[in-house]
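Workshop exercise sheet. Pairs work together: one partner reads the sequence aloud, the other fills in the structure field after running the prediction. Swap roles for the next sheet.
Pair: D.N. / O.F.
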Amino acid sequence: MRQIRKALRFPVVATSLFIAAAACRAPASDTPPTAIVKGVDHFFATSSTPEPLYRFFRDTLGLPEVYPFRSYDGFASGVVSMGNVLFEVVVWDVPAGDTLRTEFKGIAFEPTERLPITLTRLRDHGFAYQKPDSVMYTTPDGTRALGYVNVPLDGPDGLPPAGASIFINDNLGSERAAERRRVGANELARRGGGALGVLGVRELVIGVEDTATALVQWRQLLETPAQEKHGVLTFPGGPALRFVEAPTGGILEMAIRVRSLEHAERVLVDHGMLRKDGGYVMIALPNAGGLRIRLMQ
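Structure field:
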């Protein structure tokens, strides 16, 4: 799981140093003052052949590139904008003989405040979070700088499902990161949503062993009970999270909102990638492994 969290792009040091610095410059939030997170900042899929998958989203679907696909220390990834959330395709080093599955693997939340306040609120809500993972990066002039801090919410006593990486990604209130998200969303709108007319990600479907038990833990992230309805959690920003019971836990599906389902179907037919599943319109991706992508209007 440590490799999973470090695979996320927003570059990361001593946690105590970050806490001291962040406490001095915590920005005001327009989110309710006791909320822990604003919503999903980005989510990611893994693949042992990530570049063709990344190019499908960037080139075939015409989604704006936020960070180009490139190699880093021990992993490689690229990020596109899906309007209301960022999506990353990533690969990292695995032991000899192992194969990295193609599947949705992680969800990163944007915190409402800087790390000291976030950790206090997690403790107040009884969250069993793991030690914050701080990461440094090298600037173009060769100096080392603090990039981001991840607070893992998964683990044996953390949020289910097991095997998925669930965490808070603190980008240090970076205006540059926020601007990249805005630029990506604006560019997607300018392109008319790309080939399929994408408006955004409506929801991520999460499979758990028991929805009632899982929701007891997950609803601690919510500000008000109104954010939960029929097993679906909504947030001020980003996609909703729908919880379903499944024999194998994990992030099972991404549901994309499009301007016209009829238009999207025609495009998928033209590319030989249309699949119907129980009346749903799905993208049949070659070599997509466990990536279930459903379209809705």
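Discussion prompt: The first strand starts at residue 37 and ends at 46. What would you look at next?
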